[in-house]
Amino acid sequence: MLERLWAGWRSSYVTGATADRHEAGGCVFCSLAEEPVDPATGVVAHGERTFCVLNAYPYGSGHLLVLPRRHVSSLGSLDDDEAIELWDLARRAVSALETAYRPEGINLGANLGEAAGAGIPAHLHLHVLPRWNGDTNFMTSIAETRVLPESLSTTWAKVAAAFEAE
Nearest to residue 14, comparing CAs of 100, 104, 125? Predict the structure, then answer.
C-alpha cells in the first residue's frame, strides 16, 4: 500500500519566505531578471528573453530556476521566441548541473498555479534539480529540516563555472 507523508509545513514556509518580497517590491523574479550574473544575485545565466537563478529555498544543492524575463504566469502566455529560449535555457541548465554535480538523474518540471504547488504562481518558472539514488532521508519528513551539504555561494560557483564552460 502507498504510504503518504504530509509536509504541509512547506507551503507556509515558501509563502512566508516570499511574501515580504512580493508586498515590498512586486515580483521577486521580475527584480532578478535584470540583475547581473553574480553570486550576490544568485543569477547564473542570462538569455535575451530568459534567465537562470539559484532557488533561494532549494530542495537540494544545485536547485535552479529557469524563467522568462517577462512577467507571465502560464506557458500559453509565452510567445514563440520566449518558449524556444526557455526550453533552450532549461536544456543548458540540465547540462550545467550534469557538469557541476555528475548526478544520477535530474528533475525538470513546473508547478503551474498555486494549487499545483507554485510558491510564486504569478511568474512562470521551471525547476531543475540534480538527483541521486537515496538522496531523500528522514530529516525532511520527521524533523521538518532539509539538509543541504553546501552553501548557496558554493552552488553558485559550481553552476556558473559550468555555464561558462559551455
Answer: 125
Grid coordinates standing for 96? 550545467
Catalytic residue among 63, 123, 125, 127: 125
Asked if 119 and 14 touch (Cβ cutoff 8 Å), the reply is yes
Average pLDDT, the chain: 83
DSSP string, 119-133: SSTTS--EEEEEE-T
More confident residue, 8 or 49: 49
Radius of gyration of the chain (CA): 16
43: burial class by Cβ within 10 Å (0-12, 13-18, 19+)?
buried
CA 137 – CA 65 distance, rounded (Å):
23
pLDDT tens string 48-107: 999 999 998 888 889 999 999 999 999 999 999 999 999 999 999 999 999 999 999 999
CATH number of 9-164: 3.30.428.10
Return the domain boundaries, the chain: 9-164
Q: Cα(58)–Cα(45) distance, rounded to whole angstroms?
A: 18
11 φψ region: left (φ > 0), alpha (ψ -120 to 50), beta (else): alpha
Catalytic residue check, 71: no
